[in-house]
Design a protein that fits this description.
Layout: H1 17-45, H2 51-71, H3 79-98, H4 106-116, H5 119-140, H6 146-228, H7 233-258, H8 264-267, H9 271-287, E1 291-296, H10 305-326, E2 330-338, E3 341-348, H11 369-379, E4 383-388, E5 394-401
Parallel strand pairs: 1-2
Antiparallel strand pairs: 2-3, 3-5, 4-5
Helix pairs in contact: 1-2, 1-4, 2-3, 3-4, 4-5, 4-6, 5-6, 6-7, 6-10, 9-10, 10-11
């Protein structure tokens, strides 16, 4: 049987179990009607001279139906499909002319015409089928009967209306499926973009808090060594050794960063308190501009790795800001455990700043220091407080829950 899968513009064909079931019912109806008409003809007219021709035409009609269905199973109208339908209709018309009882095979052929031809041509062919059926039924009747004239057109209109409704429903369903698939793809693309932006933010913060700060410290130490090389070679060499130590530590951080491991200070053991003390010691020894101390009591239990890593990175970023921008000579790190929260305070005696002028986001802030700190605190569901005034130093306070949930924070 010639057939085509209905499609919507730009969408997938309306195929699947829902589309195949009506087709199977139509095919079954065609062969049942053909078989019953053939049996009726053989019982009543099997001895007539034209019986062999009727049997041959019935067999040809069945073969053409099967061949046409298999040959035109793909989507879209084709010239070959419409040609096969024309041959099928011609054979059926000759068969009905010889044996009017085969007229009711036209009902499944309505479906074939509506599936194969453009709407106007299909409706014209359905009208032809209907007229032929009426004439055949009048030939079989002994006298004129109204139901013979009215019945076939009613059946044709009903079959056409049902098919048209189902076809429109299938087209709408195909369009809906297409829209859902497109929306799903767009959502997946959006999630990939958001994941990429989040990863860029993480990389920017990690690079700023590790490699960038280390390079800044090395530059300062090497500049100091260059100034002292002639007047005080001993101190100059000490600065060079300190720069080499920072470079070695930066290499370790870079390797751990590549493998997405914990910061090197935490990996050495001792917990967050020991890592903060090591950070303060290096700031005091290496930079030689800020004396850094750590205050706090050991945690009653081990802090989650995420919290420890984030707080250490926050301390690194805050101390980098103190060293590079505040002009401070002293900084203090204080770690406080408050039940279900832990708070890290970084205080300095620098020139201070106007907190009212601080942007909420990164606009106007050089580098990633403060925005990165704000983002890290936000990702842990914590709060960041900055207390400062011009000439009075600055206190940066980050409080985070001990068991943070993942929170999406826009990239700074």
């Amino acid at each position: 049987m010639p057939s085509r899968s209905r499609t919507c513009p730009g969408g997938p064909p309306a195929t699947g179990h829902e589309a195949r079931t009506p087709e199977l019912v139509v095919h079954l109806a065609f062969f049942l009607l053909l078989g019953s008409s053939l049996a009726r003809y053989v019982q009543r007219h099997g001895a007539q001279p034209e019986a062999p021709a009727v049997l041959a035409l019935a067999g040809t009609l069945a073969v053409l139906y099967v061949i046409g269905r298999r040959a035109t199973a793909g989507p879209g109208r084709t010239a070959s499909g419409m040609a096969r339908l024309g041959v099928l209709v011609a054979v059926w018309a000759v068969l009905v002319g010889l044996a009017p009882s085969f007229a009711w095979c036209a009902v499944p052929l309505f479906y074939t015409a509506l599936r194969t031809l453009p709407p106007r041509a299909a409706y014209a062919l359905v009208a032809f089928f209907t007229a032929f059926v009426v004439l055949a039924q009048l030939r079989l009747a002994d006298r004129f009967e109204v139901d013979v004239v009215v019945g076939p057109p009613v059946v044709a209109v009903l079959a056409t209306a049902v098919f048209t409704h189902m076809d429109r429903q299938a087209t709408r369903q195909a369009a809906l499926i297409h829209d859902l698939v497109r929306t799903r793809r767009e959502l997946a693309a959006t999630e990939r973009r958001e994941g990429t932006l989040a990863e860029r933010q993480r990389l920017a913060m990690e690079i700023h808090d590790t490699l960038a700060q280390s390079l800044s410290s090395q530059r300062m130490l090497l500049q100091a060594a260059d100034r002292l090389w002639d007047s005080d070679p001993g101190r100059a060499r000490e600065h060079v050794r300190s720069a080499a130590s920072i470079a070695e530590r930066s290499l370790t951080e870079a390797r751990r960063f590549v493998h997405d491991l914990a910061p090197a200070d935490l990996a050495e053991g001792g917990g967050l308190e020991a890592a903060l003390r090591g950070l303060a010691s290096r700031e005091t020894t290496d930079a030689r501009t800020v004396t850094c101390v750590v205050d706090g009591t050991p945690a009653p239990g081990a802090l989650p790795d995420r919290v420890q890593s984030a707080l250490l990175r926050i301390a690194q970023g805050a101390l980098a800001n103190v060293r590079e921008h505040s002009g401070a000579t002293r900084a203090a790190l204080t770690l406080t455990h408050l039940g279900d929260q832990v708070r890290l305070d970084i205080a300095d005696n620098g020139r201070g700043l106007d907190t009212a002028a601080l942007p909420e986001r990164a606009e106007g802030v050089r580098g990633h220091g403060l925005p990165a700190i704000r983002a890290r605190v936000g990702q842990l569901g914590g709060t960041l407080t900055i207390e400062s005034a011009p000439g009075e130093g600055t206190v940066v306070s980050a409080a985070v829950p001990l068991h943070p949930a993942t929170v999406e924070v826009p990239a700074p």
